[in-house]
Specification:
Strand order of the largest sheet: 5-3-4-6-7-16
Structural class: alpha/beta
Shape: globular
Number of strands: 25
CATH architecture of the largest domain: 3-Layer(aba) Sandwich
Pfam families: AMP-binding (PF00501), AMP-binding_C (PF13193)
Keywords: Ligase
Helix content: 25-40%
CATH class of the largest domain: Alpha Beta
Number of helices: 15
Organism: Actinoplanes regularis
CATH superfamily of the largest domain: ANL, N-terminal domain
Radius of gyration: 23 Å
InterPro entries: AMP-bd_C, AMP-bd_C_sf, AMP-binding_CS, AMP-dep_synth/lig_dom, ANL_N_sf, ATP-dep_AMP-bd_enzyme
CATH topology of the largest domain: Rossmann fold
Number of domains: 2
GO molecular function, one term: acid-thiol ligase activity
Largest sheet: 6 strands, mixed
């Protein structure tokens, strides 16, 4: 039962380095001992099967050990997403009946005498709650059972699909940053350990400095950060000869941008497609068609309904924690609605064709347009609010808001951005807020957000409106 495969590879690892943090190098034997001590401390504190723990930890060896130890004692583990408002944090802790564990708590647990190490997770229990961004008001929690996590491929080389086996060969020194409870960061971290590599804490956590400074061979990167890295290499190239793999995640990578990245950085781009609800659905490796997201593994099932992709993966979440209505909309008879439009080519590659939901992906964070629009509309100066997304070199996609003022009132774009950030978090704050006289209408008479998405905000005149010369934008 999960996380037995991780414990087994650490127990057999001896003096192999598994975590590097500045001048501190932690061996497999030392990491195993640290997990034993933290797990013993958790058990003494009454944490076991069915208990909820919420982890808010830094990026260090003790944090990694705490994550694995929490699974070992059979707890219901949730990693708190960054950028939560105070209200969102309080809501999660209360709803989950979870004990908050931070770095100070872990430091105390690490001094506990080590006890026997055994996995206590029960197959049907929830092992992990992976939170979405909170852009819908409060984060949704995707619940994975211990049975589902035990089916995951990362720690089990015999289960690796071809794309993952190719990636594993490049994970000698994998940069970790942000949060080790992140679904993507932890999954590739465990894959690194199974492949014989070392997790390296990124100091600084920026590109290309971290790659050069740590002689890193691999890391996760968002689309926006990839664009910035490519530009930096074009303008002021540095030695990236150690780099073997960049796992791009979070938002779609346009073929032109992918081609440019391959030209500048070489054949190091692995472009994954997945969701919080499903984990990895497919992965494109260097050499795959540029317009695809790669070939789904044989264990992943696909079906299409009116162009929308439904998937079933061995380690997928089963439901949204304490949200039966949301669960019923997305988790259908063992399948997960991706709410993405897609098609499977004769070459076996999956291609994304659009979205069946009004969502914008900002730095790998899903932001739903509806909640942002509703928050904007609460301001007394706003009569109507509309939110769209556009490609952005810094964030992958960016949020742009258009507001129609109440007669006689003048909305303050800066205050509106702050309003959204206060309610939904900084990731949901619009990059721009434009004040318009009237929203353009489609032939059906409904608001035409597609017209807003293509507006150049300079010369466009929308049918039935005044020229946008009266627009105010920040």
């Amino acid at each position: 039962m999960w996380p037995a495969p991780v414990l087994e590879l650490l127990a057999a690892g001896g003096d192999r380095p598994v975590f590097e943090d500045g001048g501190r190098v932690v061996t497999a034997e030392q990491m195993y001992s640290l997990i034993r001590r933290i797990a013993a401390g958790l058990r003494e504190g009454g944490i076991g099967p069915g208990c909820g723990v919420a982890l808010r930890l830094g990026v260090n060896a003790s944090a990694f050990a705490a994550v694995i130890a929490a699974f070992t004692v059979g707890a219901r583990v949730s990693g708190l997403p960054p950028g939560l408002t105070r209200g969102q944090l309080a809501h999660l802790l209360e709803r989950d009946d979870a004990v908050l564990i931070d770095d100070a708590t872990v430091a105390g647990l690490a001094d506990h005498p080590a006890g026997p190490l055994f996995t206590a997770g029960r197959a049907e229990d929830v092992a992990r709650i992976i939170y979405t961004s909170g852009s819908t008001g409060n984060p949704k929690g995707c619940a994975q059972t211990y049975e589902a996590m035990s089916a995951a491929w990362a720690a089990q080389p015999h289960l690796w699909p071809p794309a993952i086996a190719e990636l594993a060969r490049r994970l000698d020194r994998y940069l970790v940053f942000g949060s080790l409870t992140s679904q993507v960061m932890l999954e590739y971290g465990i894959l690194t350990l199974a492949a014989g590599g070392t997790l390296v804490a990124a100091h600084p956590p920026s590109f290309p400095e971290a790659i050069v400074g740590h002689r890193a061979t691999a890391s996760v990167i968002t689309v926006g950060k990839l664009h910035q890295l490519v530009r930096a290499q074009q303008l002021n190239p540095v030695d990236l000869s150690s780099l073997k793999a960049l796992m791009v995640s979070g938002s779609p990578l346009e073929p032109g941008r992918l081609r440019e990245a391959l030209d500048v950085l070489g054949p190091v781009i692995f472009h994954g497609y997945g969701q919080t609800e499903t984990g990895m659905i497919s992965m494109a490796v260097p050499g795959d068609p540029l317009d695809s997201v790669g070939r789904p593994p044989a264990v992943t099932s696909l079906r299409f309904h009116d162009g929308e992709l439904y998937v079933r993966t061995p380690a997928q979440a089963g439901f949204y924690w304490q949200d039966p209505e949301g669960s019923a909309r997305v988790f259908v008879d063992g399948w997960v609605r991706t709410r993405d439009l897609a098609g499977l080519g004769e070459d076996g590659c999956l291609r994304l064709l659009g979205r069946a939901r009004d969502v914008i992906i900002v730095q790998a964070t899903l932001v739903y347009a509806g909640p942002v629009e509703r928050v904007l509309a609460t301001d007394s100066s706003v009569a109507e609010a509309y939110v769209i997304g556009r490609p952005d070199d810094e964030t992958g996609e960016a949020i742009h808001a258009y507001v129609v003022p109440v007669t006689g009132r003048t909305p303050d774009p800066a205050m509106l951005r702050d309003l959204v950030a206060a309610h939904l978090g900084a990731s949901a704050a619009p990059k721009s807020v434009t004040v318009i006289d009237r929203v353009p209408l489609a032939p059906s008479g409904k608001p035409d957000k597609a017209a807003l998405a293509t507006d150049d905000r300079l010369n466009r005149r929308w049918p039935g409106t005044r020229a946008p010369s009266a627009q105010r934008t920040v």
